[in-house]
Amino acid sequence: MPRFRVLVALALAGVTALFAPAAPALLKYGALPRTPDAPITLLLAGTTPNYVASATAAPEDYTGLTDTIVLAQFRPAEREVRLLNIPRDTWTNIPGWGYGKINGANPHGGPDLLVRAVQQVTGVGVDGYALLSLRALRDLTDAAGGVPVTVEKPMRYDDNAAKLHINLMPGEHRLNGAQAEGFLRFRHDGLGDIGRVRRQQAFLGALSARLRSPLNVWRLPAVAGALDRNVRTNVAREQVAGMLGVLLTRPNVSTTLLPGAFGPGGTWTPDRAGIRALVQERFRAPNARTATVVLRNVAAPNGTARRTKARLDGLGYADVRIENVERAAQPATLIRGPSVAAQAVARDLGFGQVQADDVDAVTVTLGADAQ
């Protein structure tokens, strides 16, 4: 009996040690997996650190440029996770700021503005975001036990200010965290950001395959802990439960590059027609955003209702109408309708006060805050 008790105590200690790294994440996001009713779209963005005068990274505040931007759509019906890589140099009209590279949206207005910019470029509605610090890449790779990749060309680069030193030779490698950071941040191969995006796609595919292997199940608590230590997110427990439900099916993971072409100064010019076709085929959520939306402009600048309709149409809303009304003083936009649908409209627009009501349509009364 004493020996049995010792064995039980050792087993419990081992289980506790195994799951300890994931404890903070489980306390915040812990939820029972479930199969979501519709696809869940998460915006993943890696932020660059801000450096102080001593050339050391300041404490992470997630306000830096976003070097990596990926839309991840969890699709339960197809048992797939579809990834859309958006080059950081994508040239677009950032709401409220004008034209610039999309990676500047986060420093200008935080993750909410980044979400709006991505939605505007892609026409895909975003359910939540997760900003990852630069340290996340290292910790996640090490927690996964390294990630196997193929290096096609010599990769050498030194940046003392950013403490980035890359020295990888062609061939098969299992990258540790520091090597993975170099592999993914390298831009000096003649393709600039597009070359880096392709390496991101290869890396994400290899990491996904490694974590889906039954042999690496024991690594998942450490992976969860690595993510939790290095993330700022607005993802709700219900969304976590839905994403876990998809991941437990061991889904296929596919990656796609945002359609476009090289533009002036190394920018990436979006191919609007190509994006619409891609989204319609690969990222449109079935039966999503089917509520009728009525737009009434009472206090916003002229043309706001038309621009808002175009935005909602691009996000897949099936029935958006404009009603002419008399102008009046109204500082805030009011969104009235069924709770779930009204909340979805508010989330997709990025502004507006929701008033839940048992009515058929969602009515958006545009105030002076409409953008």
UniProtKB/TrEMBL annotation:
Residues 66-211 form the Cell envelope-related transcriptional attenuator domain. Keywords: Signal. It holds the Pfam family LytR_cpsA_psr. The keyword Heme does not apply. Residues 1-22 form the signal peptide. It comes from the Bacteria. Residues 291-369 form the LytR/CpsA/Psr regulator C-terminal domain. PANTHER family: POLYISOPRENYL-TEICHOIC ACID--PEPTIDOGLYCAN TEICHOIC ACID TRANSFERASE TAGU. Belongs to the LytR/CpsA/Psr (LCP) family. This is Cell envelope-related transcriptional attenuator. The lineage of its organism: Bacteria, Thermotogati, Deinococcota, Deinococci, Deinococcales.
